[in-house]
Design brief:
Blueprint: E1 8-12, H1 17-28, E2 32-37, H2 40-50, E3 53-56, H3 62-76, E4 81-84, E5 95-97, E6 105-107, H4 110-135, E7 146-151, H5 155-158, H6 164-183, E8 189-196, H7 202-205, H8 209-217, H9 228-240, E9 248-251
Parallel strand pairs: 1-2, 1-4, 2-3, 4-7, 7-8, 8-9
Antiparallel strand pairs: 5-6
């Protein structure tokens, strides 16, 4: 796919971190970008910076997603690129003992488990369905009618203790990528997924230096956390390279996470 001003994109979780870096990278090629996020202040600021549009969207809400795509398409036309970066985490063991009193057993909250899956997995699928349905209306002679890129995590393959909900949600994203790509194989819509490792996102930036240094040291090479711009670079290549389809790509500096 040639990236230029004739192409529009929607990025979920686009107000910060990996999503924001991808938005800036796409916009630098002239692509018209719509940002879906809950943080209106950051989203509006970034949209103004890149000449895009912000849509306040909770990916768990069918109504929000429908309204977001309607607003984005009214501003930029039918998107040909969807990048799913919206996601949350809620750490906790499946069942564990209280640190204060080991005789007290604490099961993982089912409400939290469902919330993580609804946001990360169901929310990603909801946006893919809505975006791809719109892409199917495009009458294009190009090889690529559209491109979908979702964000999983290396936790999908080597989840650690306390990551059960997050790992389940990200493994689900990986698992659905191939069948979705096959569903659209005759329609010219490609579907890929990136599995980032440790990245210097706003969540990590709030950690103490000693924690960040330890995380960086755990990466084989290069011994640092990834930068959001490196994620964006891979997303750009997945858009431009038409042979990227149903690809599951780790971006992690050769990191394989230990059990804890």
């Amino acid at each position: 796919m040639e990236l230029n001003a004739s192409v529009s994109a929607v990025i979920t979780g686009g107000a910060s971190g990996l999503g924001a870096a991808t938005a800036r990278a796409l916009a630098s090629h002239g692509v018209k970008v719509a940002l879906f996020d809950l943080n209106a202040e950051m989203g509006e600021t970034l949209a103004k910076e890149i000449g895009g549009v912000f849509c306040r969207v909770d990916v768990c809400s069918e109504g929000d997603v429908e309204a977001g795509f309607a607003k984005a398409r009214a501003a930029h036309g039918q998107e040909r690129i969807l990048v799913n970066c919206a996601g949350i985490s809620s750490p906790g063991k499946t069942a564990g003992r209280s640190k204060e009193d080991p005789s007290v057993i604490k099961p993982y909250s089912m409400a939290n488990f469902e919330r993580v899956l609804q946001t990360n997995l169901v929310g990603t699928f909801r946006c893919i369905v809505s975006s791809a349905a719109g892409m199917l209306t495009l009458d294009t002679r190009e090889a690529d009618r559209g491109v979908v890129i979702s964000t999983a995590s290396i936790a999908a393959e080597d989840g650690q203790m306390g990551q059960v909900a997050y790992t389940a949600s990200k493994a689900g994203i990986v698992g659905m990528t191939l069948p979705i790509a096959r569903d659209f194989s005759s329609e010219g819509i490609r579907v890929n997924v990136i599995l980032p490792g440790l990245f210097n996102t706003p969540l990590v930036a709030r950690a103490r230096d000693v924690v960040k240094n330890a995380l960086s040291a755990s990466v084989p090479y290069p011994k640092r956390m990834g930068e959001p711009e490196e994620f964006a670079s891979l997303a750009i290549e997945m858009c431009r390279n038409s042979y990227f389809n149903a690809a599951t790509v780790r971006l992690d500096g050769a990191l394989r996470m230990a059990p804890n």
